[in-house]
Design a protein that fits this description.
- The protein is of the alpha+beta class.
- It is built from 5 helices and 9 strands, in the order H-E-E-H-E-E-E-H-H-E-H-E-E-E.
- Helices cover 39% and strands 30% of the residues.
- It starts with a helix and ends with a strand.
Length: 241
């Protein structure tokens, strides 16, 4: 056989194979698109709410060379803190006094002999209240305690403020998710209209996670912010007719 003619036949066979393969692939993609006529949209909902509960830990500390002296000083500080809270209008049900703790630094396993004061003590009084505004106001008015000699802030803690909570989260959750669903449906309707199609039934849904942040710029809620920002992004897939 003529070598040139042989190469021509081979080339035609290869070309025919590529054409057939391309025809099959193109029809497979077409069927895939035809069988998956759907649109996936995301629904966004955001809301700002006020915290409905506050927990405020007032920590105080004392140090000295005498165990009894440190304990008495802590007991007096606890009475001052409790009295201060009573003047701010908090009830016994809202105030919890924790047991005092006094530590002998010389008795520790890795104690250092050059400790200037042998005993270190701490105490805590907790405020737990749904009267969030009153807690916030009291936390801003602790100067009388400091002037009375109460050393607020446990060792290594500094003076911490109230921690605000959202205990009525479940009451807000359902309306927020409903708003995200409506938002997604509106986008899906708009897309279908622009595409010349009709929106069919819902195929898949992912309600997403409600994210809670404060107004202090943090990406998470550490409890320091009284104002909470809730945000949810839900994903929905609808059929197109």
């Amino acid at each position: 056989m003529n070598p040139i003619f042989s190469r021509l036949i081979s080339a035609l066979l290869v070309g025919l194979g590529i054409a057939v393969a391309g025809f099959a692939v193109s029809h497979g993609l077409e069927r895939f698109r035809m069988s998956d006529r759907s649109v996936t949209v995301k629904g966004l909902a955001e809301k700002e709410v006020q915290s409905d509960f506050a927990v405020w830990t007032l920590s105080f500390r004392r140090a000295g060379s005498d165990f009894g002296g440190v304990q008495q000083a802590l007991s007096a500080d606890r009475e001052k803190v409790t009295a201060f809270l009573k003047t701010r209008g908090f009830t016994d049900a809202e105030v919890e006094a924790r047991p005092l703790q006094v530590q002998d630094l010389f008795a520790r396993e890795y104690a250092q002999g050059n400790q200037p004061l042998r005993f270190n003590g701490t105490g805590q009084v907790l405020v737990k209240s749904a009267r969030v505004a009153e807690v916030e106001g009291a936390a801003r008015a602790v100067d009388p305690l400091i002037q009375a000699g109460v050393q607020l802030g446990g060792e290594g803690e500094g003076q911490s403020g109230p921690r605000y909570q959202l205990r009525g989260f479940n009451d807000i959750k359902a309306p927020l998710l409903a708003e995200a669903t409506r938002n997604a449906r509106e986008q899906a309707d708009k897309f279908a209209a622009e595409a010349g199609a009709q929106l069919g039934p819902l195929k898949n849904a992912n309600q997403g996670v409600i994210r809670i942040t404060g107004d202090d710029g943090n990406d998470f809620d550490n409890g320091s912010s009284r104002l909470k920002r809730l945000r949810v992004v839900s994903t929905f897939e609808y059929e197109l007719k």
